[in-house]
Amino acid sequence: MERRDFLKKTGMAAAAVAGTAISAPSVLAKEKTYRWKMVTTWPPNLPVFQTGAERFAKRVEEISGGRLKIKVFAGGELVPPLGVFDAVSQGTVQAGSGASYYWAGKTPAAQWFTTVPFGLNAQGINAWFYSGGGLKLWEEVYAPFNLVPRPQGNSGVQMGGWFRKKMNTIADYKGLKMRIPGLGGKVISKAGGTVVLLPGGEIFTSLERGVIDATEWVGPMHDLRMGFYKAAKYYYYPGWHEPGTCLEVMFNKKAYDSLPKDLQAIVDAAAMETNMWSLSQFEAGNGAALQELITKHKVELIRFPDDLLDALRKLTKETLEEEADKDKMSRKVHEAFKKFKEQVGIWGSVSENAYYNVIADKFSLKG
Amino acid sequence: MERRDFLKKTGMAAAAVAGTAISAPSVLAKEKTYRWKMVTTWPPNLPVFQTGAERFAKRVEEISGGRLKIKVFAGGELVPPLGVFDAVSQGTVQAGSGASYYWAGKTPAAQWFTTVPFGLNAQGINAWFYSGGGLKLWEEVYAPFNLVPRPQGNSGVQMGGWFRKKMNTIADYKGLKMRIPGLGGKVISKAGGTVVLLPGGEIFTSLERGVIDATEWVGPMHDLRMGFYKAAKYYYYPGWHEPGTCLEVMFNKKAYDSLPKDLQAIVDAAAMETNMWSLSQFEAGNGAALQELITKHKVELIRFPDDLLDALRKLTKETLEEEADKDKMSRKVHEAFKKFKEQVGIWGSVSENAYYNVIADKFSLKG
Question: Which CATH number fits domain B28-154+244-283: 3.30.160.20, 3.90.76.10, 3.40.630.30, 3.40.190.170?
Answer without folding.
Answer: 3.40.190.170
